[in-house]
């Protein structure tokens, strides 16, 4: 069924950490695909989320908030960022009305000036402040940003209008992916991400950043999915913190991951967790490779 009016294309979402990029992508595609947390630098990969409608298929790319590299892992995150806007039809520059313009915002805008791809600015978190002047934000945008939208990614205000504006930039083209597909990533990946999300939400300071999760087994048995995963930490001293008194910490992570994954996959999921240490994995290229950072 070839529909010449069908649109299909790619949109990347760029912006500083913690500004709501993953929250927006999840809302646009109507599924919780990309993990979110109140902490910066939650997203570590470019995550493609696919929106399928009768008239279009849009592939969104949620990127890690890019920071100046402090350790090897952050360098990897930055590389992903510059890869994310190659061959896309539209860039969403995302910030929020509370903190804009930070040096970070200005740096990203400076970079966007020289990228010959259509751009839309999205200012998020309007639910947090009643009075704000749209002109103040619009005046600071370079010419490369043709439009600005003011939204709340958590509440949904302004998102339908943004969606319709984006559609104008998506070319007429047959779909790139099958219509049932929500992402190009395997279930294994989502299992790792939901476990990591629990850790980002339940633990503080360095723990979430010192953690990597690797699924070692993923099997279906008796109408259930069983997942064996290892939580990798950087130091022995972090182990008792994650495990908690009588295993209470680990149980909390497991319960959260099981609930999210059962919901996501539509079948019961059982998660089995182990905690192990790889000293300073964030700084070692061989460890990063083993843990799935290419
Ligand atoms: N009040 C409010 N909070 C929001 C809104 N959108 C996102 N947040 C919150 O902001 C925090 C960061 O959201 P994320 O979606 O993880 O941000 P991100 O830009 O993907 O962050 P990184 O992956 O670290 O780059 C979370 O606690 C969200 O719930 C919004 O519209 N209003
Ligand atoms: Mg994110």
TrEMBL record:
Protein name: GTPase Era
């Amino acid at each position: 069924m070839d529909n010449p009016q069908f649109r299909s294309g790619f949109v990347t979402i760029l912006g500083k950490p913690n500004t709501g990029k993953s929250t927006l992508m999840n809302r646009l595609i109507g599924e919780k695909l990309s993990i979110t947390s109140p902490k910066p630098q939650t997203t570590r990969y470019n995550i493609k989320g696919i929106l399928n409608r009768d008239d279009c298929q849009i592939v969104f790319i949620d990127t890690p908030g890019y920071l100046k590299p402090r350790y090897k892992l952050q360098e990897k995150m930055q590389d992903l960022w510059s890869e994310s806007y190659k061959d896309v039809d539209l860039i969403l520059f995302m910030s929020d009305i509370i903190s804009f313009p930070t040096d970070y915002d200005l740096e990203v805008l400076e970079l966007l000036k020289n990228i010959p791809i259509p751009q839309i600015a999205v200012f998020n978190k309007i639910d947090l402040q009643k009075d704000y002047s749209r002109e103040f934000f619009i005046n600071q945008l370079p010419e490369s940003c043709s439009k600005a939208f003011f939204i709340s990614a958590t509440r949904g205000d302004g998102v339908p209008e943004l969606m319709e504006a984006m559609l104008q930039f998506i070319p007429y083209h047959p779909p790139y992916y099958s219509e049932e597909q929500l992402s190009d990533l395997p279930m294994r990946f989502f299992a790792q991400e939901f476990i990591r999300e629990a850790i980002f939400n339940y633990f503080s300071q360095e723990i979430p950043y010192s953690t990597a999760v690797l699924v070692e087994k993923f099997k279906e048995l008796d109408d259930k999915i069983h997942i064996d995963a290892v939580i990798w930490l950087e130091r022995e001293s972090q182990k008792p913190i994650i495990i908690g008194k009588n295993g209470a910490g680990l149980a909390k992570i497991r319960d959260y991951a099981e609930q999210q994954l059962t919901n996501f996959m539509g079948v019961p999921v059982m998660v089995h967790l182990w905690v192990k240490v790889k000293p300073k994995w964030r700084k070692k290229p061989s460890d990063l490779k083993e843990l799935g950072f290419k």
